[in-house]
Amino acid sequence: MQPQPLPLDGITVVAVEQAVSAPFATRQLADLGARVIKIERIDGGDFARGYDTAAAGLASHFVWCNRGKESVALDLKDPRGLDVIRRLVAGADVFVQNLAHGAAARLGLDAATLCAAYPRLVAVDISGYGPSGPYAGRRAYDMLVQCEAGLVSVTGTPDRPVKAGIPAADIAAAMYAFSGVLAALVRRGTTGRGGPVEVSMLDALAEWMGHPLHHVMHGGTPPARTGLAHAVIAPYDAYPAADGGRVLLSVQNDREWRRLAQQVLFRPELADDPAFATNSARVANRERTDALVAKALGALDADEAVARLENAGIACARLRDVREVAEHPQLAARDRWRQVGSPAGPLRAMLPPITLPGGEESHMGAVPGLGEHTEAVLRGLGLTEGDVAELLRDGVAR
Questions:
Q1: I need a surface site. Which of 64, 134, 193, 337 has the fewest CB within 10 A?
Q2: CA 156 from chain center: how many Å?
Q3: DSSP secondary structure, 292-340, as one string
């Protein structure tokens, strides 16, 4: 039986995008089979290209967010460059932009304007704080939004708040933009009309703050920062092993505590000790509880500690660094790694989390060089060789 085609096969996306939020959203679309035409500045392109050189000379952020796209470099300040964009949009299914506040509207590339001109188009505006309100015009880099959304306030140690180690605000906005596009395409399939999609980084990350936010709004106190420990469950923390590794374990109920005491701590009397028998007691005696667990696990190598916890039916995990994740045995066993092309040669990349059994494997195209597809895309719009040569000569295209 022939595998089913990718679900977005035949969908064309045009994106005026930079950094992470919009590029990560459109990469999801490309992975699912869409043709994604990425519009970049002629003077250096998407500024994420310059963040670092860690990926064989290329920027790791750019490699992560931009595989499988066609790069077209245009000067949008020149009317001829803007005309190319409009011609591309006229034949597209989806348009995505995350320009600075007001910039898309000045160019006539905001979702409302485009959807009025092209009723079948799904047009996405991604912003930091939304199109209106007192924060609308503020710069909205990921860490700034993490602070404004309260994520930093619940992350870290009792003494020090810290930002998330990944661009959580960008990723949140990207994934809501991605799902918003899919929802709008489904609606277009029934109504024939596309329409605007609006996503802000603050809205997206504030939604992800669901548990602590609802806890406080409905009468609770703000959750304490507890590092790797859990604020209201004990033992639930990472403990050092004899070989320098760290093992995190979670005891979710008193039955599990009994098994931990008997089969891991080898202290069966602790199962019924009033100081430890209930979660409330263990939280009240957190230091003593943690000391007992740390002593037992500290006598074992990390692998031995995990094996003993697993045998006792206690949830646990290795505290891995990023290099260890790249070699994670579960990812290897499930064949989650592929090679993608790039201007620097083949690069390792992970299959997207969305798996469609019985369908074609996700499209994992090459990471494009700046302007790599400009000439081909311009010719595809019907421009003559002379027209293309003029745009390149005048610096309108690259």
A1: 134
A2: 20
A3: HHHHHHHTS-HHHHHHHHHHTT-EEEE---HHHHHT-HHHHHTT-EEEE
